[in-house]
Amino acid sequence: MDNPKRREVLALSAGFLAAAFPLAALKKAPAKKEAADVGPAEDLMREHGVLRRVMFLYDEAAHRLETSGKPPLDAVAAGAGIVRKVIEQYHEKLEENFIFPRMEKAKKLAELTAILRRQHEAGRTVTASILKLCDGSDGKQLAEQLRVFNRMYRPHAAREDTLLFPAFHDLLGEKAYKELGDQFEDEEKKQLGNEGFEGAVAQVARLEEQFGFTDLDQFTPR
Fold first, then answer.
1. Contact, 102 vs 179, CB < 8 A?
2. Closest-CA residue to 88 (of 79, 41, 206)
3. Has residue 82 got a pLDDT over 70?
4. Which domains can be identified in the chain, with CATH numbers?
5. How far apart are CA 211 and CA 203, in angstroms?
6. DSSP string of 136-160?
7. What is the rounded distance in angstroms from the CA atom of residue 16 to the CA atom of residue 199?
8. What are phi and psi of 34, to 5 degrees?
9. Burial class (CB in 10 A: 0-12, 13-18, 19+), 169
10. What is the pLDDT of residues 172-183, one digit of tens each?
């Protein structure tokens, strides 16, 4: 039998629930938003960040070698290993295979790309020398090679970040640029494994610990 009071109670209850818990809130929570796509230039510039962190360790190692200090040579060698794997065998190959040829074909910054190619080759020679000298046989020569590497790669990376990559973005157009970003991501997984860029950052952080550089604030002028 229908009960008017019961219908009234149910209606009030439904109204309360609707006010307290809107329909949208009762629906299944949306999945976590995926990370934004990383464009080719941003991808390469992040890898330049890894390179610069290794170069900072190179600076410190050279300083210690030149002032009778004792840098952790195993960490220096590991840093050179990151440069070889992440920068020389992966990052620079992306530039040589996907960026330089397009710029040269379009007759854009051809002189710059020619210099960058030569510096890639020179950098690989210096890295091989650094790895060899990490046996501790000649600290003076190791310090010199570390400084030679940094002196070349600081302006090298800066020119790419401020000249080459912006010009390449303009040349390619948004659709082709996004497609190349997807291709870079596939190459990253293939060459660097599932950890990719994040794995390289974690490796550099461990080397910074060996140098005693875990606290960024220690470099703030007082």
1. no
2. 79
3. yes
4. 40-212 (1.20.120.520)
5. 13
6. SS-HHHHHHHHHHHHHHHHHHHHHI
7. 51
8. -70, 155
9. middle
10. 888 888 889 888
